[in-house]
Amino acid sequence: MRLTFAICDDDGEQTKGLRRMLADWSADKPFSLQITEYEDAEEFSFDYPENPCDLLLLDIEMKGINGMELAKKLRDRGDMLPIIFITGYSEYMSEGYDVEALHYLLKPISPQKLYGVLDKYIERYSSHSREILVTCGGRALHIPTDSIIYIEAFGRKIQLHLADKGTLDCGMNLGSFENVTGLIHCHRSYLVNLRFVRSIGKNTAVLDNGEELPVSRRLFSDVNRQFIDFYTGG
């Protein structure tokens, strides 16, 4: 399994320190950790739709759009990306709760406190990997992740294709499903569940039911590797 954490901070030294701490924390974990770095909120906002992440370590005091404004924009469009706020000012804490931040760390960052927060995140990540809460037609539904064949995005909405219930139209986005084990991006508009994939080609993924989903050229190598790893235990 691979996780992607993003650091958004305009302080280069702070970013280097966080990267070192993340590397130390993940060294003995049963997964690989990819770390992406952004110097400001605008850079993150531009890249995030194409390169989503599982967790965002977000500085609040930045030039241009600050971290709190970025978090509010994510929440306003229904994106519940887990966020750990990092700041030198405790007065932001109440706003952090308003956007449902995972945690709030004051500078200078203590490795032990960061590791404790990350360990709790992984525990929650693992315990929720078999079921996900979705909002469809004003109703909140628990959906077993093993029943999701694939998810297709249509602008600001998505359609879930389920093995046992047909389809569900939801006012959510693909980013809400990025940390679901087994679901991977085969195309910018599609997440597919590897357990329902029969084969991967350079342009299409063939499902067990015969349906074909597009595979983007940029993602093919990564999709093919994850498909092989999924069935070989790599």
Question: Could you outline the blueprint of secondary structure elements for this entry?
Answer:
Layout: E1 2-8, H1 12-26, E2 32-38, H2 41-47, E3 55-59, H3 67-76, E4 83-87, H4 93-98, E5 103-106, H5 111-127, E6 131-136, E7 139-144, E8 148-154, E9 157-162, E10 166-170, E11 183-187, E12 190-193, E13 197-200, E14 204-207, E15 212-214, H6 220-232
Parallel strand pairs: 1-2, 1-3, 3-4, 4-5
Antiparallel strand pairs: 6-7, 8-9, 8-12, 9-10, 11-12, 13-14, 14-15
List keywords for this structure.
single chain, about 230 residues, alpha/beta, Rossmann fold, OB fold (Dihydrolipoamide Acetyltransferase, E2P), 2 domains, 5-stranded parallel sheet, 5-stranded antiparallel sheet, 6 helices, 15 strands, globular
Question: How does this model look, in words?
Answer:
- The protein has 234 residues and is an alpha/beta fold.
- It folds into 2 domains: 2-127, Response regulator (Rossmann fold, 3-Layer(aba) Sandwich), CATH 3.40.50; 131-232, OB fold (Dihydrolipoamide Acetyltransferase, E2P) (Beta Barrel).
- Helix content is 29%, strand content 33%.
- The chain has helices at 12-26, 41-47, 67-76, 93-98, 111-127, 220-232; strands at residues 2-8, 32-38, 55-59, 83-87, 103-106, 131-136, 139-144, 148-154, 157-162, 166-170, 183-187, 190-193, 197-200, 204-207, 212-214.
- It has a 5-stranded parallel beta sheet with strand order 2-1-3-4-5, sandwiched between helices. Strands 10-9-8-12-11 form a 5-stranded antiparallel beta sheet.
- A hairpin with a 2-residue loop joins strand 6 and strand 7 (139-144).
- The longest helix has 17 residues, at 111-127.
- It is globular and about 55 Å long.
- The termini are close together.
